Amino acid sequence: MQLPIPNPQNLIYIILIFSAFFFSPSVSHPRISEAGRFCGHGKHNSSSNFIPNFVNVMNFISNNVNAKRWGEYIIASPAPVVYALAQCYDDLSPTECSACFAVSRTKLPLCLPSTSARIYLDGCFLGYDDHEFSHQAVDDEYKNVKCGSSRIDASKFRTKEFARKVEGVIRNVTELAVSHGGFGVFGKRGGVESVYALAQCWKTINASGCRECLEEAGASLVGCGPGVEGRAMFAGCFLRYSNENFYGIEDGSNDSVRQTVATILIAMASSLLALFGVFMAYKRFYKRTEVYNNPIGVSISIHKNNLNFKYEMLEKATDFFDASRKLGQGGAGSVFKGVLPDEGSSSVLYSVRLISLICYTLVHLLICSIKRRDYH
């Protein structure tokens, strides 16, 4: 029975399979929970074209959202005017964006026949009105703050520390959003409690309007402390904080960078240890296979030594080819047993099978089984 010798290339597959335990993709939740729905006070009468116009606007908006994750559209004729704006938050994937918009589109009609309405989900925004409102950063009618009911269980000192931490995170995420096209996430881990925040301005709002909206929203949201989460839903932006990480991408905090680097280093170290372990296991298995295929225990390295012996050494080792040292008769002559000067003993068996298996001269004595008189 021949034991299979493992192919070293198979080690690559073992390492790749092992590494898969350390690197796996993560997918954020589409965040379809409703943060707030606000219906206008005005009402359309049932005889108007409002409902058909509303349906048509939503169809156009849906196409835009699926194509670029936000959109706006207006129908002015026939009356009444219906304008709509939709926006997914930038950390959602296209698939998650479509799912979030689909939910908001099914919930917004609950406000009908109101002349205006806004709905904020945790992952997207959708609104309609009887006039264009996409460039309104701040509107007194839409300054809504929703604080979480849960509060941190801590002393008065820790509560103040948490409130200060929330304020700092909101300030940082506001700066990130203003300087990065209207979107930013920021997290601060450790301490009293971890705090994570997300800021999103609508694509139709310029940088100054985005700052104005987020600063007012942030000032209102700070009042939610010591609540563990809060949401500000304003005319031109959405701002949220929580003590749990809820967004789908890495944030801009130094803590996040350090944590990412640490994770990578740990994964690399673990992979190297795994590689070393696989190598040692392969080496031990190879040695066992070698012993099995070489049962007489002769080292293969002997083949590399190119053993050659002088005739005088062979005479001495075999006591001048004494008959008592003769082992038998081989195909090329007599075979003798000898003791070499280094006290090592070598039993030479002239066998084609042995030679083909070990492939070295094993004191084959040059098959020095040549009769003594041939050397005279």
Structure description:
There is one protein chain. This protein is elongated. It contains 8 helices and 14 strands. Helix 2 packs antiparallel against helix 3 and helix 4 packs antiparallel against helix 5. Helices cover 36% and strands 19% of the residues. A hairpin with a 2-residue loop joins strand 9 and strand 10.
What's the layout of helices and strands?
Elements: H1 10-19, E1 34-39, H2 50-68, E2 70-75, E3 82-88, H3 94-107, E4 117-121, E5 124-129, E6 143-147, H4 156-179, E7 183-188, E8 195-201, H5 207-221, E9 229-234, E10 237-242, H6 254-293, H7 311-317, E11 326-330, E12 333-336, E13 338-339, E14 345-346, H8 352-358
Helix pairs in contact: 1-6, 2-3, 4-5
What labels describe this entry?
disordered N terminus, 376 residues, single chain, 5-stranded antiparallel sheet, disordered C terminus, 4 domains, Killer Toxin P4, Chain A, 36% helix, alpha+beta, 14 strands
Unreliable segments of 5+ consecutive residues: 1-6, 8-28, 254-258, 298-306, 343-376
Helical proportion, percent range: 25-40%
Strand content: 15-25%
CATH architecture of the largest domain: 2-Layer Sandwich
- How far is the N terminus from the C terminus? 47 Å
Transmembrane segments: 12-28, 261-282, 350-370
Membrane topology: Single-pass type I membrane protein
Domain Gnk2-homologous: 32-133, 142-246
Main location: other
